[in-house]
Predict the 3D structure of the following.
Amino acid sequence: MIGYVTLGTNDLQGNAPFYDALAKEMGVDRMMDFDSFIAWGEPGGAAGVALTKPFDEQAATVGNGTMVALEAKDPDQVTRLYTIALENGGTDEGAPGPRGEADANGLTFYAAYFRDRDGNKLNAFCMAKL
């Protein structure tokens, strides 16, 4: 089971408001807050997301093919998270919308893709009857 996912940053305090805004929409807050590390989520809850300056003090770089997926409660929240990301310095990687066909239960993967200010790729998604 995943406890949390950590992403590197070169500007912790500059990038933190991006994640504060996403966390607020998802009903959580900072659960850990240190000079070089901030984590958002709920202790004992679902997996959280953390942002840190690299321990080796080298520049943080984006992992090619690496992405953090944030589970939204419905398509409207997917859209809100995408909008919040762009309003807080993120960049578009794919507007909200269905991806693929509905499964046997009539559920469709609905997602939006974006990057934070450091270039880390995230997505907001849900499975929904559209």
Remarks:
- The domain at 4-55+67-128 is CATH 3.10.180.10 (2,3-Dihydroxybiphenyl 1,2-Dioxygenase; domain 1).
- Residues 72 and 126 are 5 Å apart (CA to CA).
- The chain has one domain: 4-55+67-128.
- The longest helix spans residues 12-25.
